[in-house]
Each structure stands twice: as C-alpha cells, then as structure tokens.
Amino acid sequence: MNENELANRVIGHAIEVHKILGPGLLENVYKESLFHLIKKDGLNIEKEKTMSVAFHEITIESGYRIDLLVENKLLIELKSVDSINEIHLSQTLTYLRLGKFKLGLLINFNVPRLKEGIKRVANGI
C-alpha cells in the first residue's frame, strides 16, 4: 500500500474519531483513539516514535518524537489547537525530511469539521 492509500485510510479513521468525540479535547485523547482504530484496521502503527538527529559528526538520540507512524512510511502529527500555523507545518516538514518520509498528515482535531483541520504535507525527497 502506498502513502496516499494509507493517508486516505487514516483520514477516514480520523473523521470517525472526530465525529464521535468532537473538538475541544486534549491531543492525547485523539492520539490514543486514532491509534486504536488504525491498529484495529490491521495496519502497523507506532506511537510516540523517538527518532535521532544527525548533526555534523554526532547523533542526538531522542531528537524528536513522531506522534504516529503508519507502516513505517506515513507520518502523522496531531494537534488540538485553535488553528494550524506556519510553525506546525514547518515542524511536520522537518520531521518528514529528517526521517526521509515522503508524506505526512498534519491533523488538528480542534475544528468544527475535521476536513478543515487536515493538511497533507509532502517531502520532495
């Protein structure tokens, strides 16, 4: 399954989570709920995956943490904020670049309709 197919499945699960729970909860509630649905769907998923960062001749362990990683190829960064801003997008792009992932989803659950809170973020590797 390619990244776009995975993204479409994950978006479907995210919409289900949002329909049931609605906006206004802590990010961790959405993360645990989405993790549960994706795992139940039979996809390989990791939560809070720690990644190292190479800088010059050193490696910095625990350089960043991915909220969810599906099938070791789709990065998911979750938020529950008033609005997505440039720093959230930049953060997601940095995670994609450092992890050498092609596609990520930046999902903000704190919106009236989840469609408004989903951004596909592509890395031009």
Indicate the percent of residues in helices.
25-40%
Q: The CATH topology is what? A: Trna Endonuclease, Chain: A, domain 1
Q: What is the highest CATH level, the class?
A: Alpha Beta
What's the pLDDT, averaged over the residues?
A: 95
* Main sheet characteristics: 5 strands, mixed
Outline the structure in words.
The protein has 125 residues and is an alpha+beta fold. The protein has a single domain (3-122), classed as Trna Endonuclease, Chain: A, domain 1, CATH 3.40.1350. The chain contains three helices and five strands, in the order ααβββαββ. The chain has helices spanning 3-21, 27-40, 86-99; strands spanning 45-55, 58-70, 74-79, 103-108, 118-122. It has a five-stranded mixed sheet. A hairpin with a 2-residue loop joins strand 1 (45-55) and strand 2. Helix 1 (3-21) crosses helix 2 (27-40). The longest helix has 19 residues, at 3-21. The radius of gyration is 14 Å and the shape is globular.
